[in-house]
Amino acid sequence: MDEGWTEVVKRGKKARQQTAALAAPRGGRAPTAAARSTELAAVAAPRENRALAARKKNGKKKRPRAARSAAVVVTLLPAAAEKGLTYNEVMARARAAVSLDEIGAEEGLRFRHTANGAKLLECPGADSSGIADKLVATLRVALPEDEVRVHRPVRMADIRITGLDDCATKEEVAAAIAAQGGCALESVTVGELRSGYSGARSVWARCPVEAATSLATPPPGRSTGDPGRLRVGWIAAHVRLQEPRAWRCLRCFSTGHGLARCTSSVDRSGLCFRCGQPGHKAASCTAAPHCALCAAAGRRANHRAGGKACFPSGDNTERNRRRKSKRRQKRRLARGALANAVIPDAAPVPEGGGSGEGEGAMDVVQQ
């Protein structure tokens, strides 16, 4: 049995060969234009579908998600630091005052450090929220309020409210968000109202994720891309959910860490986020945008710090860049090895090419 060798070729080469074969004359007679277009479309359809899926995946916006379990945060106040009180003493006092069996946490709690150095106690289980409420109530009795702050952290999200009239105020907007979003008024933060080119006013607000998602949901009968509605006085304003912002240090303007753990030798805490000059804030700045972080790194700086045009920097970003570079290098080496690989005809090859499982992993061409 005399058969030829089987060559493993690069992905995409087989499709190009099929396209060239369809465009070539057959039996001395060229195919008609209609037949050629139909066959070419059949060959190109899978590639176009894969490209469209990749574009949709890359362009998909990130939406904030609600926390899966409740938690309690214990934070030392400045008065405790003046008295020399440490977290070890506070947590020891808390363990002596709280019985996990009494509050329903027989499985125990999960311990973590927050970005500002506080202690976070995560409450697992089906009744996570109830356990956290009982734990907060018990700790507030056992620990002094002027030295230790005990609270329930809430995951927040940003929304943009547009179409407001001249009579709207920050307090009125905050009350409308709390009432229609079903959240506490203390957990709502509203920025400064600004007038647009059309004369209507807009404002950015921050509220719990559940409330933000509910307010940004389009009314019944509207398409998915339409904004939600928020009634502020007489006006039915538009509400859109914003993408989560990058974790940025307010001291050095870099990403990947917070103010409490900043180790940079450069202090930009007094600079404006818009123009990079000291003495004022970005809310009242009218100068041309100039990013101090990108300017120090030798990059284009004609934008505000932290904007979409700002290149993220920091330890995490640099580490991710190195990881992506290594992954790209491994993929290039793997593609080169597959392109040059030749397997003997003794190896079983599924009929029709391919590997049978994971279609598209490699293309096998019988010579």
TrEMBL record:
Keywords: Metal-binding, Zinc, Zinc-finger. GO terms for molecular function: nucleic acid binding; zinc ion binding. Residues 1-34, 304-367 are annotated as: Disordered. Residues 272-285 form the CCHC-type domain. Residues 19-34 have a biased composition (Low complexity). The keyword Thylakoid does not apply. It comes from the Eukaryota. The keyword Zinc-finger applies. Residues 320-334 have a biased composition (Basic residues). InterPro entries: Znf_CCHC, Znf_CCHC_sf. This is Uncharacterized protein LOC114249658. It comes from Bombyx mandarina (Wild silk moth). The lineage of its organism: Eukaryota, Metazoa, Ecdysozoa, Arthropoda, Hexapoda. The gene is LOC114249658.
